[in-house]
Amino acid sequence: AQESVGFEEVQGKTAGMRTTLNKRGKVYLVGAGPGDPGLLTVKALECLRLADVVVYDRLVDISILEEAPRRAERIYVGKAPQGEAWRQDAINEVLIDRARKGKKVVRLKGGDPFVFGRGGEEAMMLVSQGIPFEIVPGISAAVAVPAYAGIPLTHRDFASAFTVITGHLAQGKDNVEVRWEYPSPERGTLVILMGMANLPNVVQDLRSHEWPGDTPVAVIAEGTSCRQRCVIGCLDDIVARSRDEDLTPPAVVVVGEVARMRENLSWFDSNPLFGKRVAILGTVTQTRDLGQRLRGCGAIPLELPILQIQPPLNWKELDDAIVHLDGFRWVVFTSTLGVDAFFGRLFAQEKDVRNLAHLRIGVIGPTTARALEERGLRADFMPHRYNIGGFLADVARSSVDGSRVLLPLSDTTGGKLVSGLAALGADVHVALAYQTTPNPAAVLEGLRLMASDEIDVAAFTSYQAVTHTLGSPEGRLGVADRVKIACIGPKTAAAALRHGLKVDVVARDHTLPGLMDAMEEHFRGLSKGCDCVAGLDNG
């Protein structure tokens, strides 16, 4: 494969090539976006999940690779700023080789593959070799990075157009006397990609093209990531300002009046959780869910799944309850895990949701309600306060008095719910749906982080997370002064207090979004501290 393929060559080599190609082999040139994994497109995600091989660049967020199947081959072909780790012809050979072996190859490129990503060259090479390919556009850093810095590229008062250029040229081309065709300052905004290393030359060239020295300039390093930094200046001082702040590539440079708007529109790196390192202690699902939310506001989540969810030793209790569903009036779910276990056993008995038609279904909170909706069911009852105390306070005695109620629970939950429903006259039947056991390695890492200066927050997503962590033999380790303790609800906070922790944050809404909101309020200075002495019921 050649590093660069001309269009004339392509036209002369396509005939007959597909006869030697395994028809299942195909290359997808996929844009991974500018850094934030949340900016990956739906189409890109579909390609990744079907990939046999993923060939990825240096600027692709590594967490995106988790979307590919475990069996998929992962090949890093990143290129360092001061020299290439992989030559383009070697990358081409990899694409050709894997495609000819019948593989679905995802060529994952930062930003958009056709915006200074050499995607056009790779596509021409694939055509020359008769290899089927598909282009999956990505969100370009040229648009996304300024947006994350609060800088619109166009504005009716300042810029009616924008121009995107590269800050350096290909190897072998004159990179000293660069004479780009810039728009005039009155016409619009200039966006320069890969311009950090060549910033002095870029500024000099702009000034020589009569851009005024006081023209606003923004340099945004590692944009859309939790390490984003932005320096605002003008053409006369931006080089010195960037050097003083020690900005390094990758960076996007924005030149024009719109750069001034960051002062009012900054939203991402002004979030109170931006750059905060948050250790999340809970189940795999909880840590992953909260981690995604935290990444969306620029925090650095450290996911510690200290609770391992396992099936019970046998399914007898739950299976017997499902066999005799006709004898129940209510089924109440306290978690999505209970929903998963219940419906897994329901389907294992070759039953379906029609067998629940006579039941009233109760849930503790909206996350569990959504798990039901995914199975085509709506909860009949959910309390205003998403905890067991709220459920018992809101459910009418007339609704449960004399009714047989099924509770699919874990081995460590349900005591207050069982006694509370019994006090309302219900005939309560508990069926073990899952068990929680500690993950020793994650527990030790959580304790180590809390005792260190490496994190800003330790966030507990349930009281079981507290008891399994702090109730362990190693749980008497200290907590660093700077580490804030955040709890999903008062019951979790009470458990933390009993183990000697000073609780700084308690969510009013006892859900993962509520926990994140509470942490934001705390770092914004809006919270009034922890008041978790009264009303200890759930969370």
Describe the 3D structure.
The chain is an alpha/beta fold and 539 residues long. The protein has 19 helices and 19 strands. Helix 15 links the parallel strand 15 and strand 16 (427-438). The radius of gyration is 29 Å and the shape is globular. The chain starts with 6 loop residues before the first helix and ends in a 15-residue tail after the last helix. Mean pLDDT is 87; it is low at 1-22, 170-179 and 531-538.
Shape type: globular
Task: Provide the residue-averaged pLDDT.
Answer: 87
**CA gyration radius, whole angstroms:** 29 Å
Query: What's the β-strand tally?
Result: 19
Strand order of the largest sheet: 14-13-15-16-12-11-17-18-19
Task: List the uncertain runs.
Answer: 1-22, 170-179, 531-538
Strand percentage, roughly?
Answer: 15-25%
Number of helices: 19
N-to-C span: 59 Å
Structural class: alpha/beta
The biggest beta sheet is recorded as: 9 strands, mixed
Proportion of helical residues: 25-40%
Give a concise summary:
The chain is an alpha/beta fold.
Which terms summarize this structure?
539 residues; alpha/beta; nine-stranded mixed β-sheet; 19 strands; disordered C terminus
Write the layout of secondary structure elements.
Blueprint: H1 7-13, E1 26-31, H2 42-49, E2 53-56, E3 73-76, H3 88-100, E4 104-109, H4 119-128, E5 133-136, H5 141-148, E6 162-166, E7 189-193, H6 199-208, E8 216-221, E9 229-234, H7 238-244, E10 251-255, H8 262-265, E11 277-283, H9 284-296, E12 300-310, H10 316-323, E13 330-333, H11 336-348, E14 360-363, H12 366-373, H13 388-394, H14 397-400, E15 404-410, H15 415-423, E16 427-438, H16 440-450, E17 457-460, H17 463-470, E18 484-487, H18 490-498, E19 505-506, H19 512-524
Parallel strand pairs: 1-4, 1-5, 2-3, 2-4, 6-7, 11-12, 11-17, 13-14, 13-15, 15-16, 17-18, 18-19
Antiparallel strand pairs: 7-10, 8-9, 8-10, 12-16
Helix pairs in contact: 1-4, 13-15, 17-18
